[in-house]
């Protein structure tokens, strides 16, 4: 049915099975463990606490500090076959590879969700997360404090950055930190239709709206590492504010696109899903790819928000029976 | 904002909650940050005097015929109050389509937890169970009005009774620095004990426990919180570091008649805690332990074992008893009670007490 099937035979807009646990760690103020298919992330939050370096504190608001746990640094350098913190789930043949033979796009990218050719370091990812989280935490309630988020990648199988954002948000909720919205991330792969072939497939799929195919771009939600590493695949992680997602998800928020694609008018009447931030990696993304990804990400974010709500409900129900007499 | 006109009566069946991606039909018991709760809070019926629900009941009652007029002078229709975890924000009223005045107000949850309504004080709040004590967590209810869009006031946390650990005195000769497991450490003046003078005051070593009261909060983050081991004067009085003996303040009695004996006798309320052991619990559990009919403490009380206990709202608990086995048993009983339903708690305590008594007699 699909002209460009996913390796995992999922539909393009299907997320992987999600499973989460709140407060798996007892010493942290808040923690969450999130499994998205085979990607498993653990996030721990300490806060609000005093900054260790007094220079860092701001008198009027809090600061978010994000750290990917140190195990990452070692993993990206060492041979990853048999690595402990990132299971070799990507491709079987890589387990046998020695460190030198791995392609830049796959194995070295395992612990860090970017190909090393992209040049993004851990620091950039940490800042990305920090910005995403800072926009939704009410930092003015925590002056002179630091909210420390530590992310541990237990198993990486694609969509690591997006899952890390979601996991961090759940850990913040668990810690009881005041937030004015929820930052929910969705990872999309945009595949430009290859110019060589596929012309005949165009007719078959023109009516299939689910594929979100517009002008030759295919969007897959929640890619695995295998899907991420394909050639010509551009990944974008879009973080939206979950409290502002419009009720009607189907209607487009893009009202008009000028002919030369230079100007895009967004539908400002709708209470549009505010995009907090985004991050791209992999192949370069076309404008179509980006816009289609934005559309797809809304569905993903709505689904994830419902999932988070479920997790909170379970915790609340349990507390109601035991804690609040 | 102009005066509110009467709201149109709510439809006979409440519409599903407007939160994103929600699948509920019933009003949400569990809320996550960013949830729009305007409909539930502003449309809740005014509490009728005939059915005063038990203050301990946490079930939120929803009525289909609610409408609340915010500015009405009718007693029963006073505006509801917002407690912890809820904020009221004013949206820019660019909405031409909707003339409803309440579209400009939005009540949002800021923490994830359970939405609770207290009938007696007409307060809505979100009950959650954090592990870290933050000084701005005292539930000061703020009525919804147009004046209250300002930030959280700075006097939160004042009056809390906390247990802290003395860190050191390096900072200044006049103040102890005390770790109250909040965001920052707090200051305790060396003379703020009952009847303390320069020559006659308790010497607190680093690592000792103190049970004290917060007298100055975070003040918007500009100052370190301050503590005192003196019995409280009125809440408006901030200069409780005045010298000399304390005074029982009758009017704004803040401290509930706490005994104000000198620090030298061990019968005062506040001061260093000697012996025993201390452990941290979550804030929610500490709050539960402070309730008058707490299950685990009353069960321990009934069992007749001797012990003394101090509970700080910052999540620290101190227990002391003549035998270390009893102390440990109490510690475990309290920790277990966090995850056990109430009816099982009493049974658990009975079993544990029996075991400990047996053990002590076998020695």
Automatic annotation (TrEMBL), chain A:
GO terms for molecular function: RNA binding. Residues 15-177 form the Exoribonuclease phosphorolytic domain. SUPFAM superfamilies: Ribosomal protein S5 domain 2-like. This is Exosome complex component RRP46. Belongs to the RNase PH family. Residues 1-12, 98-109 have a biased composition (Polar residues). It comes from the Eukaryota. Residues 1-31, 82-116 are annotated as: Disordered. GO terms for cellular component: cytoplasmic exosome (RNase complex); nuclear exosome (RNase complex); nucleolus.
From TrEMBL, chain B:
It comes from Skeletonema marinoi. Residues 8-19 have a biased composition (Pro residues). Pfam families: KH_6 (PF15985), RRP40_S1 (PF21262). GO terms for molecular function: RNA binding. It comes from the Eukaryota. Residues 236-246 have a biased composition (Low complexity). This is Exosome complex component RRP40. CDD domains: KH-I_Rrp40 (cd22526). InterPro entries: Exosome_RNA_bind1/RRP40/RRP4, KH_dom_type_1, KH_dom_type_1_sf, NA-bd_OB-fold, RRP40_KH-I. GO terms for cellular component: cytoplasmic exosome (RNase complex); nuclear exosome (RNase complex). GO terms for biological process: CUT catabolic process; exonucleolytic trimming to generate mature 3'-end of 5.8S rRNA from tricistronic rRNA transcript (SSU-rRNA, 5.8S rRNA, LSU-rRNA); nuclear polyadenylation-dependent rRNA catabolic process; poly(A)-dependent snoRNA 3'-end processing; TRAMP-dependent tRNA surveillance pathway; U4 snRNA 3'-end processing. Residues 1-79, 230-267 are annotated as: Disordered. Keywords: Exosome, RNA-binding. Residues 276-324 form the K Homology domain. Its main location: nucleus. It is found in: Nucleus.
């Amino acid at each position: 049915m699909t002209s460009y099937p996913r390796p995992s035979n999922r539909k393009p807009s299907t997320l992987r099975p999600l499973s989460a646990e709140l407060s798996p760690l007892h010493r942290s103020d808040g923690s969450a463990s999130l499994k998205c298919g085979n990607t498993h992330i653990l996030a721990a939050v300490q806060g609000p606490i005093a900054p260790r370096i007094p220079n860092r504190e701001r008198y009027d608001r809090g600061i978010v500090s994000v750290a990917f746990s140190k195990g990452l640094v070692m993993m990206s350098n060492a041979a990853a076959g048999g690595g402990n913190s990132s299971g070799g789930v990507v491709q079987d043949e890589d387990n046998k590879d020695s460190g030198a033979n791995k392609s830049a796009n796959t194995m070295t990218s395992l612990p860090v969700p970017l190909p090393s050719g992209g040049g993004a370091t851990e620091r950039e990812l940490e800042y990305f997360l920090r910005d995403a989280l800072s926009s939704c935490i009410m930092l003015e309630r925590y002056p002179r404090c630091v909210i420390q988020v530590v992310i541990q990648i237990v198993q990486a199988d694609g969509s690591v950055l997006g899952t890390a954002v979601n996991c961090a948000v759940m850990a913040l909720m668990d810690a009881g930190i005041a937030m004015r919205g929820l930052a929910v991330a969705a990872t999309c792969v945009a595949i430009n239709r290859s110019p060589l072939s596929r012309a005949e497939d165009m007719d078959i799929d023109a009516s299939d709206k689910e594929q979100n195919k517009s002008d030759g771009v295919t969007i897959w939600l929640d890619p695995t590492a295998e899907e991420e590493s394909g050639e010509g695949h551009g990944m974008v992680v879009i973080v939206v504010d979950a409290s502002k997602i419009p009720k009607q998800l189907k209607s487009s928020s893009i009202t008009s696109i000028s002919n030369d694609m230079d100007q895009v008018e967004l539908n400002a009447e709708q209470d549009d899903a505010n995009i907090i931030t985004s991050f791209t990696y992999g192949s370069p993304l076309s404008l179509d790819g980006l816009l289609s990804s934005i559309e797809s990400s809304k569905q993903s974010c709505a689904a994830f928000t419902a999932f988070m709500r479920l997790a909170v409900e379970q915790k609340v129900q349990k507390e109601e029976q035991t804690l609040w007499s | 904002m102009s005066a509110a006109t009467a709201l149109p009566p709510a439809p006979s069946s409440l519409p599903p909650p407007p939160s994103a991606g929600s699948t509920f039909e019933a009003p949400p018991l569990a809320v996550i940050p960013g949830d729009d709760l305007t409909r539930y809070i502003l449309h809740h019926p005014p509490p009728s005097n005939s059915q005063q629900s038990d203050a301990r009941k946490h079930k939120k009652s929803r009525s289909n015929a609610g409408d609340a007029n915010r500015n009405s002078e009718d007693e029963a229709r006073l505006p509801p109050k917002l407690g912890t975890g809820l904020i009221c924000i004013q949206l820019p009223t660019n909405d031409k389509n909707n003339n409803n005045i309440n579209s400009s107000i939005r009540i949002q949850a800021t923490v994830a937890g359970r939405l609770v309504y207290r009938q007696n004080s007409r307060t809505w709040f979100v009950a959650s169970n954090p592990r870290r004590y933050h000084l701005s967590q005292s539930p000061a209810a703020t009525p919804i009005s147009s004046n209250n869009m300002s930030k959280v006031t700075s006097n939160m946390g004042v009056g809390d009774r906390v247990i802290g650990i003395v860190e050191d005195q390096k900072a200044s000769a006049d103040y102890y620095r005390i770790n109250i497991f909040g965001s920052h450490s707090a200051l305790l003046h060396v003379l703020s004990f009952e009847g303390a003078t320069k020559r006659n005051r308790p010497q607190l070593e680093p690592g000792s426990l103190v049970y004290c009261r917060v007298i100055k909060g975070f003040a918007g983050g500009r100052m370190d919180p301050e503590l005192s081991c003196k019995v409280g004067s009125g809440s408006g009085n901030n200069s409780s570091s005045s010298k000399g003996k304390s005074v029982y303040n009758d009017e704004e009695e803040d401290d509930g008649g706490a005994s104000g004996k000198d620090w030298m006798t061990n019968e005062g309320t506040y001061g260093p805690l000697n012996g025993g052991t201390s452990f941290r619990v979550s804030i929610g559990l500490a709050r539960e332990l402070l309730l008058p009919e707490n299950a685990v403490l009353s069960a321990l009380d009934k069992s007749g074992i001797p012990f003394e206990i101090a509970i700080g709202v910052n999540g620290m608990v101190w227990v002391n008893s003549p035998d270390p086995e009893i102390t440990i048993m109490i510690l475990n009983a309290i920790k277990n009670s966090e995850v056990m339903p109430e009816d099982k708690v009493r049974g658990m305590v009975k079993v544990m007490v029996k075991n400990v008594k047996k053990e002590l007699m076998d020695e």
